Amino acid sequence: MNFKRVLFIVIAILLLAGCSTKEDPASDDSKPKDQAVIKNTDVKNEPSDEFPLTGIATEAGSERRAAAVMINNHPEARPQSGLSEADMVYEMLAEGDITRFLAIFQSEMPSQIGPIRSARDYYIELAKGLDCIYVCHGNSPEAKTMLDKGYIDNLNGLYYDGTLFQRSADRKAPHNSYTSFEDIEKGAKEKGYELNGAPEPYAFLTKEEAAGLQGEPALKTEVSYGSDEYDVQYEYEATEEKYKRYSNGEQTVEHKSNKPILLDNILIIEAAHQVVDDKGRRKIDLKSGGNGYLLQKGKANEVEWVSKDGRITPVKNDKEVGLIPGKTWINIIPDEPGLVGDVSF
User: How far is residue 281's CA from residue 275's CA, in Å, rounded to a whole number?
Assistant: First the structure.
């Protein structure tokens, strides 16, 4: 009888304990779990990354390797295709007063890029500094040596004319060679090149820093390359808060769509130029650094530029100057006469 009574008491205690557990409010251990769910929801709604050359937020990831494409700037090659989708564009002299572009694509993948022109050694150096796949159609003797020795992963239209590079029927050679980002990646896979490996990011300003920018007014700026056909004008569009670009007074737009090229940062720098042959080919010193102007939000500031691991970087008081998130155009001009003689506001 006593045994049954004890057993009854034990069972009653266990039942009471079970009821008590169910009726208790959520324990302290459950609170962090609820908070973690809220936090994860917040993170899901926030972009996971930024593109390294534009500072623009993305949820799709930003590890894609960049491609650097030589773009023709002859008047017969204008308007070009793909420039509005380039993260950065470098503009430099090739021969004589003729400039060419090195367009860097990483955040966007154009379906048509061109017209494409031949390589020069100093453009290759810039592409190498961003660890790009370098794309050209033809080459100078110095550039050929670099490409043949494998200095940089490259695709040369001389060997892919009609396959990865297509000729447009509405223009004459050498102003009619085009490719696409899809064909660049296809060629890279065929040659065993790595397709991942984004460039190191540049420094970018926050919205608050951009809103507080100071500087000299730079609503209209001209950069001279010694010829009306290649001189450049920038005009600040206050409603867009971006710069429009012009060549010889004609606005730079996309071929076919007429979409304007709109820019957030204009970096104008001077570097030593030297003519090295009877064709007028040059060597350009992209390592020694020098003076420059940085145009942002309708204002200009004097900066210096340095070659940081092969990348042209604006600095002031030995500190990297932040860019406005968006598109950047870099004009490299001869140091004689330099900024004083070739740039006007």
Answer: 6
157: tokens are: 């239209």
Decide if 36 is inside a domain. Answer: no
Residue 320 tokens, joined: 């990297």
Q: Is the pLDDT of residue 206 over 50?
A: yes
Residue 179 CA to residue 162 CA, distance in Å, equals 10
Q: Name the residue range of residue 144's domain.
A: 57-344
Q: Is the pLDDT of residue 41 over 90?
A: no
Q: List the beta bridge partners of residue 64.
A: 196
Q: Which CATH number belongs to the domain containing residue 243 in this structure? A: 3.50.90.10
- The three-class DSSP label of residue 144 is helix
Note whether residue 21 is domain-resident: no
> From CA 262, how far away is CA 259, in angstroms rounded?
9
Question: Does residue 310 belong to any structural domain of this protein?
Answer: yes
Q: Which pLDDT value is given to residue 22? A: 39
Whole-prediction pTM: 0.86
**Among 267, 328, 325, 241, which residue's Cα sits nearest to residue 55?**
325
Burial status of residue 290 (CB atoms within 10 A of its CB: 0-12, 13-18, 19 or more): middle
pLDDT digits (tens, 9 = 90+) for 225-279: 999 999 999 999 999 999 999 999 999 999 999 999 999 999 999 999 999 998 8
Domain count within the chain: 1
Asked whether residue 2 is domain-assigned, the answer is: no
Sign of CA dihedral 310, 313, 318, 319: negative
**Angle (CA) 82 145 90, round 5°:** 30
Nearest to 64 by CA among 132, 118, 138: 132
